C-alpha cells in the first residue's frame, strides 16, 4: 500500500509544480510551447485516476503489477523532467537577483538556458508519448477510473523510505546489509547500506547502473566509530548519480568534497556531518533546490563560500561544532531558514548581527558568537530576537575581552529573547558562564 501512496504523493507534487506561476512564466518567457505542459498535466491526471483500482488488483493480477511498475518508472522520470524545468526557472531567478547590471543578467540567463532550450520540448514530447502508451495499456488490462478517491490518510509523512515501502516497491529500493551490492536494477531509486570502517568503490560498483537513484543513505552500525570512503567511490557517486535528492556522507572522514557535487541539481538534502573538510567547493552554491545542509561537527571548517546566499531554498543549516570565523556576506537573503544553529557576528557591513532580523521562522537552538563585534545596543536590537518566538535555546558569547563593559551590558539588554525561550546561556568576556532555564 505504501508504494502506491508514495506514487500518489509524487503525482501531486508534479501537478502542483506544473501549475505554479513561476514555472509557467519561465516557460512563456522562453517562448516554449505551453500546450506541452497542459498535455503532460492531463496525462498525469488521467493515470492518477486509476491508481486506486491498480492498488487493489496488483497482488492478484500480474499484468496490473507489471503495468504499475512501468508507471512508477515513468512517473519518476516525469518528476525529474518537471524538476529540471523548475530548477532552470529557479536558477534564472536567483542569478537575476544576485547580478547587478541588466546586461549582465541577460547574458547570464541566456547562457544558463541555451542547452535547456535546445532539449526541453523534445523531452516533454517523449514523456507525453510514454504516458500515452501507459494510458492505452491501462484500458487493455481493465483498469477503471475511480472518482473521489481520498489518499490523504495514506500519504507518507517523510521522504525517507520505510520498511513497508521497501517491501512494496520491489526493484525501486535496495538495502545492503553486508558485502557488495549486486543484482541492482536500473529502476532503483532508493539505496541504503550499513557503513563499514572502510567502504571502497567495489561495494558500490553496481550502483553506477542506477542512473535514476534518488536516495543514497548510509546506516550507522556504531555511533562513534570513524568511517572512511575511498576517493574513487566518492567521485563515482557524485559524477554518475546526478538525480539524487538525498545524499548522506555523514561520519565519513572526507578531506575534500569534489567540485562535481554541483552536478546534483536535484539535491534537497546533503549531510556532511563529521567530515574533515576545511571548506566547501564553490559548486555547492549551484544546488538551488537544496533545503537541508548539515555540517555539524566539521571542526576543521572555518569558512563558507561567499555565494552560499544563493541557496534560497535552504530551510535547515546546521553549523554546530564548526570553527567558522565569519558568516557569508548578506546571509539574510536566506529568508526561509528555519534552523540556523550558529551565527558568527562579523566586523563588516553585511555580516553584522542585524542580518538575523530577516529570519522570522527560526526555531530550535542558535548560538551567537563574536558579540564583541557588535558596535552598539541599537545594532543588537536590529536582530529582533524578541520576535523569534519559536526559538527554544539561545547561547550568547563574547569572544575576547573588551574595555567597554557598558557597551557589553547594553548589547546584552538589547538581545532580550522572546518570553517563550526555554534556555539562555551567556558567556562573557571575563570568562563567566551563566545558564538560565
From TrEMBL:
Domain annotation Disease resistance R13L4/SHOC-2-like LRR: ranges: 238-298
Family annotation (Gene3D superfamilies): 1.20.5.4130, Ribonuclease Inhibitor
Superkingdom of source: Eukaryota
GO biological process: defense response
InterPro entries recorded: Leu-rich_rpt_typical-subtyp, LRR_dom_sf, LRR_R13L1-DRL21, LRR_R13L4/SHOC2-like, Rx_N
Transcription regulation keyword on record: no
Residue span(s) of domain R13L1/DRL21-like LRR repeat region: 353-434
Keyword Nucleotide-binding tagged: yes
Name used for this protein in its record: Rx N-terminal domain-containing protein
Start and end residues of each Disease resistance N-terminal domain: 22-96
Gene Ontology MF, one: nucleotide binding
Record keywords, A-Z: Leucine-rich repeat, Nucleotide-binding, Plant defense, Repeat
